[in-house]
Amino acid sequence: MNSSTIASPDENEYFETHSAPPNLPELSRIVQGFVLRHHAAGRHVVLVSSGGTTVPLENQTVRFIDNFSAGTRGATSAEYFLEAGYAVVFLHRQFSLLPYSRHYSHSTNCFLDYLSEWGRIGEDGNQAGGDVVVHSKYRAQMLDVLRKYRRAKEGRTLLLLPFTTVTSYLFLLREVAMQMQMIGNGALFYLAAAVSDFFVPPDRMAEHKIQSGDLSGAPETEGAKPATQAAATTKETGAGKKLVIDLDPVPKFLKRLVEGWAPEAMIISFKLETDPNILLYKCRQALERYRHHLVIGNLLSTRKFEVVFVDKEGEQWIRVPEAKDGEEQIEIESLIIPEVVKRHEIVMSAKKDGPMAGNQDSRAPSASVTQ
Ligand code: PMT
Description:
By secondary structure, this protein is α/β, with parallel strands linked by helices. 31% of the residues lie in helices and 22% in strands. The protein has helices spanning 3-6, 11-17, 24-40, 72-83, 102-105, 139-154, 166-180, 253-261, 276-290, 333-349, and strands at 45-50, 55-56, 64-65, 87-93, 115-121, 127-134, 158-163, 187-191, 198-199, 232-236, 241-245, 248-249, 266-273, 294-299, 306-311, 314-319. Helix 9 links the parallel strand 13 (266-273) and strand 14 (294-299). It starts with a helix and ends in a 22-residue tail after the last helix. 35% of the residues are buried. Ligand PMT is lined by residues 69-73, 191-195, 197, 250, 252-254, 269-272, 298, 303.
């Protein structure tokens, strides 16, 4: 395949020109078992995608492009879906936040701060034979999280599927979608991951670490691409080397998901913007382009406090009420998920005549939601 074909790849080309994760068949069997078991138990299954995807710049990857997403939206939403009785396939960026452990793993919330030492003082004045206990201040909250975590673990209702690169994300998304086809509109896709829009095609990817220094006199690098074929090249500027990266667009797989991989499922995509003036426009554009059920729009700066649901009936803002003195701010996902579940119920009760079935009356107002 030449580089001009790869410059405008479609979905098939993308999968043909990239290698699938080596353990994909095994993961596929695990997902199949998970979906079948929960379907038989009368549970709906939601795929929650979460976190950012990386775009490697080298085959033997030293450098990659990443994005800001920590996976808070996905991990928090997964907990509320579990509470609502769903089985959750959590397709997440490796090492991003996970349901339940997220309460203690964030960098501003070091888990050690939740612990204290309990025990007697030895003859030397130091603690001896002491023990580690949860600080009394945090016990009630931790007990609540622990119980929910245990319930999910014992019920095996949470399946963790990690990815790192945009390619492994896409292979996994396709595979999970195929396995979820068997439960029709009992399947829900909640795509909160921040998926990269650009990538380096394999035939233009540098094999080895891209060099910033002078290599004249060094032995020739094995597998080096001529500058005309390489996606990343360095240019001498006088004040040092400049790195120039030429990325291709990642095909929008949402279309393929809606039309082919999961035609009966309810599909919810997210749209992140930084400019409030274009958020609604971009949400409507996505809905029109992909013809799925719902777009949830959010702004980078306010995403924890407000989101907008956009479907073909219109918009509905969901806002976190201001916390009263001494109260903790509620999580916006505690308002989003009940609303999503309500809309999923409507989709499931509507006749199955296409991906937009049930969308007509799906903008039901909610008591806990501010408009
Ligand atoms: O993790 P946090 O820090 O909590 O942040 C959460 C979030 C802001 C990342 C999340 O709420 C969010 O908005 N996620 C979507 C970000 C976004 O705007 O993605 P996008 O515009 O690249 O894609 C829009 C939708 O198209 C996504 O739902 C994605 O699943 C889909 N997509 C994207 C790329 C691609 N190649 N194919 C796709 O189908």
